[in-house]
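thread from #wetlab-drylab

HS: before we spend reagent money on co-crystallization trials with threonylcarbamoyladenylate, can we at least see a predicted complex? here's what I'd submit
DV: go for it
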Amino acid sequence: MKTMILCEKDLLKAAELLRLGQVVAIPTETVYGLAANAFDYSAVKSIFKIKNRTAQNPLTIHVCSLEQVFDLVKDFTNIARKLANEFWPGPLTMVLPKSNLVPSIVTAGSDFVAIRFPSNNLAKMLIKTIGFPVVASSANISGKPSSTKVPHVLNDFDGKIAAVLDGGECCFGLESTIVFLDSNNQKILRQGVIKKEDIEKIIGKTVSNLYQNVKCKHYSTNAKLIIIPSNKSLYVDYVNSYADVSSSGALCYDEDLEDLKIFSVSYGGERDFVSQSRKIFSALRELDLHSNIKTIYARCDRESSSGAVFDRIHEACDKIQRL
Ligand code: TXA
Ligand code: MG
């Protein structure tokens, strides 16, 4: 299969492919997603296959209006309404009790469905044009870093999907915040650019964090990734003294670049949470392009990285080295 690269003027072509049950990679404001018709069993199934994703891991339905949401859920509660008013369209996914209309392959058998209303214009226009919601899962082979640009998508899926709709670089660069909502329980399942406190402010009560329980390795690089939680001078001294120049790489802040003697890729400035979100997946993928790199030394700590970026790097990590 030849993967077409489509742009805004080809929106009708992308819509036609989705109607035919094909998989199309689409831009969103968070990361690129592999999209398919949410109501077409074999199209949904092919997303699991192409990503090498287990059938037990459910997919998120992407919509372009609240009307579409009402059909997909049993009850759109007051809390969900408040969050939708504040954050939709945008980088928030809500997990709600599903209606009978949602195929069980989408939710992996769960009675809850994850729903997101993206703000990216191309994504919204595409869903509007096709007239039905799509499932979309981050456009990466399972376990690998998400994609924030078309070359990332092609690196993983060239020849395996019908098309990618080019929307340039994703503006946030991190996957959406996921909040689980049932009538008496609210939990954050994944951190994103919308923070726990932002959600608590809108719903007027505290929510718990479930993401701390995540055990599975995610966002893996080919090389072993070691986190060094320390300040610049200790990190730079350690890496320059112990890392083998020919087989190591550094994942660092902008400030570290000039002093490191090994191949180094920055994921933004220290405490610059916006640039870190945008760059983290590109940085992990860039390190992956260098097959000689067997060990990555990453500087990351709670003060200097945003909570959401801290989480991603820890999910990619094999070992934490305290100095
Ligand atoms: O920003 C995003 O959310 C991106 C873009 C493409 O929209 N999508 C994305 O999809 O990150 P994915 O499949 O990589 O991650 C979705 C997460 C998974 O961890 C999945 O387990 C969880 O959402 N999820 C989906 N449906 C769920 C459900 N019914 N209950 C609990 N978790 C669910
Ligand atoms: Mg993902």
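DV: Residues 56 and 108 are 5 Å apart (CA to CA).
HS: ok that's useful, forwarding to the group
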